[in-house]
Every structure is written in structure tokens, then in C-alpha cells.
Amino acid sequence: MTKKIGYLGPKGTFTKIAVDSLFNGEEKASYGTIPECIDAVESNEIDIGVVPLENAIEGTVHLTIDYMIHQVRLPIIAEVVVPIKQHLMVREGFDQSFLDIKHVYSHSHAIAQCHQFLHHNLQHANVHYTTSTGKAAEMVSESDSTAAAIGNELAAKEYGLKVLKKNIHDYPNNHTRFAVLSKQADPLMGEHHLAGAQKTTLMITLPSDYAGALHQVLSAFAWRKMNLSKIESRPMKTGLGNYFFIIDVNQPYDQVLFPGVIAELEALGCKVTILGTYPVFTMDIQA
What pathway is this protein said to act in by its record (predicted)? Predict the structure, then answer.
């Protein structure tokens, strides 16, 4: 049975690139915001949702994490890592210089990723934040010739724009992680050509703020020689000083190490929730 895949749209976003790298032939639907996409999975409007999770330069997409924790709890069934290459795009008729660009549109992360280029070449332009790079390209395609968008070549093709300047991002090793969410907790497996490592993500809440609490949590993983690729704290939204921790473990869930960790942490008074155990897919794009 063909599944319906939702993603942060419109067409031309990096999320769409991530979706196309994993799913072929499935019906696809775009959503204007991350919450809308996650809500669509929860309401069974779509079977799978793909949303940005973290960027190597700008860090965690907090809206995704907070919405997944506080509003709609869905299992992570896969992760897709996409290299991010940002280009300056204008309408086809534009044949002027950077000085003639008066407006620049893009997502806040994309703007931040191109800070040095904007500072040196487009300091005179007004910067406008959009919900996605794809939306920025769409807006520029419908605006006058003084506007430019920052985005990928897929967006340029989708909206009939030309790339005025390629690779304007400040750092070359820029990647974004995308979470694949579904009510069906079974991970995407099989012989996918992009398949790589396995990962398990946990949410851990400490009982109270006491000396050495975090050290004890990390020790439960350390003495078992379990490698953590990320640990991040986020506010519980129940008052100052109340946090939960998101921890990524670079191995799949098993019936030996993980139950031992959970039992040890629960003995300390922690609450542990498994957000997903899943494969990590890494793609390569030339554009």
C-alpha cells in the first residue's frame, strides 16, 4: 500500500530533497509549518511526516523538538542527513549587480548560514524571513526584479529562478538532520542505498536539580561504553530551572544495555522515554 508523505514545504525546500531521497512513487503533500506537518501525521491525514531537526551551523530546530515533546508525541522512525548548499537566486530577467537587489528573502537559518556573504555584498538590502527557503523562492518568483531569495537549486528550478551566485553559505561542511515521524513505530529498514548508522533517541527528565544529577545520568551510559552523539537540554515549560534532556545514542535499541540504563536511571528518580530507534540515511548532492 502506497503511503502518503508530508513535509515542510512548499516545493523546493531542503526537506523536499530529503523526502525525495527516501521515498519514490509515494504521494507527497507539503505543509506551510512544522506543527502543521506533525499534526497531519497525528490526525492520520498523512502516514509519514518529515521535518528539520538540527543544522550543523545553527543548531537544533527548537520548534520541532518542543512540538514533538509538548504537543504531539510521535516515534522517530528514521533520520535523513542532507548537505546544505545555499545559492542566491533572482528572477530570470535580472541582469544587474548585487547593488540593485533591495530585498532578500529566506528562512532564518538560511539567512544566518549566509551572514558573511550578506554582510559583504548585500548590506544595503532589506532581509525578510520566510517559513522556508522554498517559500522564499516562491515569493521572489511573484515579486519585482529587485528581490532575491536564498535557497537550493531545486527551488530555482521549481519557481523559474536563476542562480545569480552559487554556494554563498559561510561554512562548507553544513548539513541538516531531518526527522522522519510516523505513528507506526517500525523503523524504515531494508537495503536502502543511503542507509548507514543506527541511532536511538531518549528523553530523560531529572527528578530535581541536585548536585551531580547529570553526571549520574551520563555515567549510566559511559560505564556501558555506549557512545552519545548528542545531549541537549530544553525547558519543561513548567517553571524556571526545570529541564528535560534529549540524548542520542549511536546504536539501535537492544534488550540488554538499554533496559539496564533505563532501570539505573529510574532508580535515580529519572523519567525515561524512548523517542525512537532508527536508521540514519546520509545523502550527497552536487547542487
Answer: Amino-acid biosynthesis; L-phenylalanine biosynthesis; phenylpyruvate from prephenate: step 1/1
